[in-house]
Amino acid sequence: MEQRKEKRYRLSAPASFSWKDSEGIPQKGEGITRDISAKGIVVLSKSAPQPGEHVELDVYFPSPNGWPRTVQLHGEGEVTRNLDSSSSETCFAAEIIFETDNDTDNSASEILVRSGRWVQ
Whole-model pTM? Predict the structure, then answer.
């Protein structure tokens, strides 16, 4: 039975993220989203923060029809788990609260839907 509170969208979009490792050393990574919701994300990458670590994350979308520029979602949150992936990539899930970089009052969910880049 599905128990998620937010609608999840299968979405492949570029993402960059940063965190401090267990020794407090700043780390950076880039990857591709696997899926996203208004309050969470799963990212495939070559490096990943560990569960419990704070992460800052940016997701980049091309401009939706009628919007003058590219949409960027910025969010912060906590890594909830690491998932098995291929030997060259790892995958992590995080609870994230997103804000938009644009001068708009649209929610993250509305931006995902209007961008036309998602598949339920």
Answer: 0.76
